[in-house]
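User: I'm new to structure prediction. If I give you an amino acid sequence, what do you actually give back? Let's try with this one:
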Amino acid sequence: MAQKPSIPKGTRDFSPQEMTRRTYMIDTIKSVFRTFGFAPLETPAMENLSTLLGKYGDEGDKLLFKILNSGDFTASLAEGDLHGANPGAVAAKICEKGLRYDLTVPFARYVVQHQSEVTFPFRRYQIQPVWRADRPQKGRYREFCQCDVDIIGSRSLVNEVELIQIVESVFSKLGIGVVLKLNNRKILYGIAETVGHADKMMDITVAIDKLDKIGMENVEAELRERGIEQQAVERLKPILTLSGTTAEKLDRLAGILAGSPTGLKGVEEMREIFALADALGVTLATELDLSLARGLNYYTGAIFEVKATDFAIGSICGGGRYDDLTGIFGLHNTSGVGISFGADRIYDVMCGLDLFPAEANLTTRVIFTNFGGEEQLESLRLLAAVRRAGIPAEIYPEPAKMKKQMEYANKRGIPHVVIVGSQEREQGLATVKNMTDGTQQNVPFAKLADALA
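Assistant: Good question. You get back a string of structure tokens that encode the predicted 3D arrangement of the chain. For your 453 residues, that looks like this:
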């Protein structure tokens, strides 16, 4: 017996109905990106590993999907390499390429590679799948789609505020209630400096970024495992649990970080971002979250994370400021900021909350019955006119009993059936049946497209 076909864990097939919904969702996101003046870009699914490695931290590097070299990939291995060797060293010999982990690093590579063709500040959006060798679980996939928008070549904090406005517009259009959490990596550095561990900023940020997931007690344990002594942990805890309004938190932070110029710079940046957003009438729920760290190494300034307020799932959107990501590839002092919308998680939220409008479930809006002969020919002529009017339409492919054709339309959820039998053809009137309420009307052939529109 043949083995039942399957797909890798952490990946999904999408049915026509699911793809119709996803297309509606992505088109909505894309329309907002275009409204804000961003241009589209695509990069290859695979990049050279030299482009990807070292950009996401040690944990990120472990999640990269590596691609075996073509041909005899073992030719570069010495005898004994596979026995007790460092897996990373072996992978470096047999893999030169990998699937992209995100869209930001390939974007930075593109900017450097094509810098003579790019006009700065460069505003681009990119909607493509990415891959991570993570443990699959609810809301976490190994293959998923990101919808990224970035501005590179400008340090202005106006760009951060525009990203906040984009978040507000996207989720307003999709009908999802969200809260936008913000922090600043400069503040995090200032905190690490203040508790006496500026040299362990990355260890601290990786641990505190898990606060929502594992709780303070487990974060404390991880901090100690990473070499942060208990005294420093105790000094860190009240900072992470500061309460009050955003202005009150920032005022108290300014006092706590008084000895850290970098930390104070982060406080001032956040004050300006919140003030600009407030002056522009942004109504999106926002909060300063000092436990927010974003695990990626390349962030240097403001960082963002969006969570749904009415559906239990991880973050559905995130990003931040990166001051010298392109410097890794040779183009220094080119600051950028961007945010990524997680299409798969947003889709799960919309399905869970039943937010897709009826039209997002339809591929065909009209189907013509088929009785063969002259009636079939007349239906095909009318079908062409309906399609020219931009209405998604089809015809039942072969003559069949009316019951069978109606059942097909019903199963497909097609809202209108156009019947052209011998009587309709003689009178020049099509019978249009509304499959939702069962009503029928007779429409002149010449006006059919207008009536259906």
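You can read the tokens as a compact description of the fold. Here is one thing that stands out. The two ends are 51 Å apart (CA to CA).
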